[in-house]
Amino acid sequence: MSLSVTRRTRLSTAWLFVLVPIVILLIAAPWWAGRADLRLMGEIALYMSLAVLWNLLAGYAGLVSVGQQAYVGFGGYLFFALTMLAGLHPFAALPLVVLAGFVISAPVAVLIFRLRGAYFAIGTWVVAEVFRLSFAQISSLGGGSGTSLSPSIVRSLADGRDAREAVAWWLALGAGMLVIGAVVWLLRSRQGVALTAIRDNELAARSLGIDIWRTKFTVYVVVSGLTALIGALIFLQKLRISPDAAFSANDWTAFVIFIVVIGGIGTLEGPILGTLVFFALRETLADLGTLYLIALGVVAIVIMLFAPRGLWGFLRDRWGVELFPLSRRVSGLAKKEA
Amino acid sequence: MSAILELQGVKKAFGAVVVADDQSWSLQPGEALGVLGPNGAGKTSMFNLVTGTLSTDAGTIRLDGQDITGWSAAKRCRAGIARSFQVPQPFAHMTVFENAYVAATQGAGLSGRAAEAHCLDVLDRTGLVAKSNVQAGGLTLLERKRLELSRALCAKPRVILLDEIAGGLTENECQSLIQTIRDVHATGVSIVWIEHVVHALLAVVSRLMVIDFGRKIAEGEPQAIMQSREVKEIYLGIEADA
Ligand SMILES: Nc1ncnc2c1ncn2[C@@H]1O[C@H](COP(=O)(O)OP(=O)(O)OP(=O)(O)O)[C@@H](O)[C@H]1O
Ligand SMILES: [Mg+2]
Questions:
Q1: What is the CA(B163)–ligand 2 centre distance, in A?
Q2: Do B120 and A210 touch (CB under 8 A)?
Q3: What SS3 class is residue A331?
Q4: How far is the C-alpha of B7 from the C-alpha of B59, rounded, in Å?
Q5: CA–CA separation, A72 vs A128, rounded Å?
Q6: Nearest to residue A324, comparing CAs of A269, A259, A264?
Q7: Which of A59, A163, A264, B148 could anchor a disulfide with A55, C-beta 3.0 to 4.6 Å?
Q8: What are the respective helix, strand and coil percentages of chain A, to the nearest 5?
Q9: Within-domain flag for B241
Q10: Are B230 and B130 members of one domain?
Q11: Together in a domain, B67 and B175
Q12: Cα gap A193→A191, rounded to integer Å
């Protein structure tokens, strides 16, 4: 048989050629972007990471968590604790934050996986509240009012303000690429095939040999560990942490859900596109005050009405476009039929 | 010869509705067993119990002599039991090929090129290969049924459970389906086939079982069963060759 299976499409190959210069350009950003732009781009990279991770959780594994702020805050606080209390260098603290995220999320998963549907969502929120209340008790981290990253730790990142801003940007960019890379890798792996099947039909997935609990557990733990890393970088950028900011359901879950839903849940490109749209809206409408939030709501409603599977879902259903080579296509079919 | 699949005193009820009433039967290695019964008799439920998507109230299910009653559906599939769903359950946003690929990688434990080749081979045999790149959600009902069969075969089962896959086919399509199932049977796969299209069933199976109200009411050589009073009573009004 002259049939073969490929994952690359012309578009995905072309995309690679576009992606490489984009990444190089982004790495060089400290030389062409101003300080404010660099901060904004860092924020975009970190939000994009949160969105990609939440999408993996909710859009693929069906784990609709409204409590991922638990891990953002956990990561932020642990990073402050490791650097300020344990005296670790920030670069040494970051991998430990990821590991700790894996370790803490495993028992949480065992607990909340007993809950179904809406109860699961509520459970994740309760867990986040428990995290918030616990960290508010730690007086060495400022208790309920929080604390600032000490200047010596900030200085240990790099000499001079500009160099530090550059390092913070590279960390955010690196984390974003790590997250997207990890998700692409996961979705292309055997586990990813299982996960995509679960996304579409759990009954069939079970009946074809997929261990649903284990697959979801893996996703939850990986996503939570990486979310903790993003949390650490968010508060490294902010230089200040408090329980309310660290465990904000609004900032780290509501906006993220908005991004994923308008971008296209259950697709890899959706949250990436959604993040860009979200920041474009925010930057153009931010002067409007509360009207800005109303505008966001209107955008969400319009997209839900006209493209229920989000912007990317709309593009994909229409033209079958896919930037990251995930799906497997059989080539040589036309020849065979002829 | 010891049975590859064996049910012993299996019971299941949904409230007052009994779908498995003290069911005991077995399947020999390489055997093809046909299942008849009126609508709502509990045939599909029996498959759900065997594949583990439904848990038993009582009784034991054995695969190759091993008690699998407490096993998850996934583990049973990996151990060699695959089924087609009467109401198709495609992975709607994945292509036909990817649907097959799930079964080959997760159920049969294949990987890489071996998995791909196996899928293409199965799709070729079930006549779906030309649709490989089509999203499963866009298939017609008949194509979805064929996809059910393809996926089950991709899982490389030792026992395959087929639930009404011949309905609605033209005579030609039905003949090619019969040939496909015969070929599968010839490779040594044991088959349990629920089918209302009796002539298709009789072309493949060597034994028939009749189920009503969750109870096995007759079992034996196909011709004898078709002539039996139980079957005639149940199928009164339904033509035997519909
Ligand atoms: N999950 C369930 N909960 C409650 N009742 C159920 C459930 N599944 C099946 N039943 C009932 O059990 C009975 C047997 O259903 P089943 O699907 O096993 O019948 P069947 O023999 O496959 O019928 P058909 O020929 O129509 O496919 C029916 O009355 C059905 O309504
Ligand atoms: Mg049925």
A1: 7
A2: no
A3: strand
A4: 7
A5: 10
A6: A269
A7: A59
A8: 80, 5, 20
A9: no
A10: no
A11: yes
A12: 5
User: Which residue range(s) make up the domain with B13?
Assistant: 5-80+157-236
Tell me, yes or no, whether B66 lies in a domain.
yes
Same domain, B52 and B170: yes
> What is the signed CA dihedral for A58, A63, A65, A69, rounded to 10 degrees?
-80
**Is B26 an interface residue toward A (CB < 8 Å)?**
no
Indicate if B99 and B137 belong to the same structural domain: yes
Tokens of B99: 């649907």
In a domain, B242, yes or no: no
ipTM higher than the 0.85 cut: yes
Rounded to whole angstroms, the Cα distance separating B234 from B162 reads 21
> By the 8 A CB rule, do B135 and B91 touch?
no
Identify the nearest ligand to the CA of B41 by its number. Answer: 1
Looking at B127, B150, B173, which one is the last position of a domain? B150
Class of residue B44 by CB neighbours under 10 A (exposed 0-12, middle 13-18, buried 19+): buried
B95 within 8 A of B132, measured Cβ to Cβ: yes
B161 and B232 part of one domain: yes
**Tokens (6 digits) for B116:** 């791909």
Ligand with an atom nearest the CA of residue B20: 1
Assess whether B130 and B23 both reside in one domain. Answer: no
DSSP structural state of residue A144 = G
Please state, in angstroms and rounded to a whole number, the distance separating the CA atoms of residues A268 and A140. Answer: 40
- How far is the C-alpha of A311 from the C-alpha of A315, rounded, in Å? 6
Mark whether B146 and B166 lie in a shared domain: no
Q: Are residues B44 and B145 in the same domain?
A: no
Query: How far, in Å, from the CA of B85 to the mean position of ligand 2?
Result: 9
Q: How far is A188 from chain B (nearest CA, A)?
A: 11
**Distance separating the N- and C-terminal Cα atoms of chain B:** 35
Domain count, chain B: 2
Q: Whose CA is nearest to atom 4 of ligand 1?
A: B14
Asked if residue A52 lies in contact with residue A226, where contact means CB atoms within 8 angstroms, the answer is: no
| Domain CATH code at residue B68 | 3.40.50.300
At B112 the three-state DSSP class reads helix
Per-residue pLDDT 10s for chain A (338 aa) are: 578 888 777 777 888 888 899 999 999 989 998 889 999 999 999 999 999 999 999 999 889 999 999 999 999 999 999 999 999 999 999 999 999 999 999 999 999 999 988 899 999 999 999 999 999 999 888 888 889 888 888 888 888 888 889 999 999 999 999 999 999 999 888 888 999 999 899 999 999 999 999 999 999 999 999 999 999 999 999 999 999 999 999 899 999 999 999 999 988 899 999 999 999 988 888 788 788 888 888 888 898 888 888 899 888 878 877 777 777 888 887 754 43
Confirm whether B225 is domain-assigned. yes
Tell me the C-alpha distance between A302 and A308, whole Å.
Answer: 9
Tokens of B151: 């996926």
